[in-house]
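Posting here for the record, re: nicotinamide-adenine-dinucleotide.
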Amino acid sequence: MKVACFSTKSYDKEGFERLLPKYEHEFTFLEAKLDEKTVSLAEGCDAICSFVNDHVDEAIVNKLAKMNINNIVLRCTGYNQVDLKKAAELGIRICRVPAYSPEAVAEHAVALLLTLSRKTHKAYNRVRDNNFSLEGLTGFNVNGKTVGVIGTGAIGSAFCRIMKGFGCKILAYDPFEKEELKNSGITYVSLENLLKQSGIISLHCPLTPETQHLINAKTISLMPEGVVLINTSRGALIETKAVIKALKKRKIGYLGIDVYEQEEHIFFRNLSEEILMDEDIARLMTFPNVLITGHQAFLTQEALAQISKVTLENLNELEKGNALSNEVKWAEENK
Ligand code: NAD
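Prediction output follows.
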């Protein structure tokens, strides 16, 4: 298949180019983000390959259909950015990479937690300035703490396993409970109880209409004082303004985020010479107890290799018209 690959970064290209000789697909790597203007760059292709912040909305789907492009391969897990209903109506088939390396994302969530708990981000800068003072670097042990895990799919489960190794008590909330996690000593509770009892909370559920702003003024009010909140899932799970208010009052003691509600205007780009216009992220960056990374939790060699492999296999299945192992359907979204 001829594939237009949008939002391509050097690491995406390297991952695909390593495997492409084994496949018969022809990739055009485009740095451009997918939007109404750039979608025409896919003219003459059989498929597009897009990433998390490429909005495959109704207008894009209509344009793809007009160009006879009936295949979309998402090189990511989440698909909240896709108008699945419109795509289904127009006969466009969509595949994703369901779990390329759950451990990559889970380990990044742990990295955010440990950086905040031991202030290694501050220590790194301080020592480079020949400042070996320990003043202000007092941290806290993660061992023995109660950790609340919201969403125990592939990534949430991997996160539970790691936190168990740290000697934490783990509470979980997920509409679908996993027997193997229960058998390993993890306790499923209601969302309310999880929020009330967990000193550390990590988000691993998808973004859906139901989970949008799951963390808001009301749910924050249930949390213990000084709670640590980690989000490596999707930015809009958190109502940013409510979190800023809670940080000001020290209700939220630490915030570690790899995703941000308005990230599509900021992340994956070098804006170091520009004026940052987003007031909320600018405010978040002023807090000493907030750590932000730019949606890099997935970015490991292992995950990139798996993303390329599964995407190319998805294209093989789409081309052959076989049953699709990783199809995303409108019905699935509606469940
Ligand atoms: P998954 O589908 O394996 O697991 C998601 C889990 O969330 C499922 O068990 C589901 O039952 C549960 N869930 C659904 N609705 C819920 C709700 N209202 N409350 C609690 N749990 C709910 O997905 P995954 O591979 O574990 O990925 C989780 C999320 O992580 C993805 O949706 C994606 O948004 C995000 N992600 C982020 C990165 C990154 O680089 N930061 C990379 C990959 C995935």
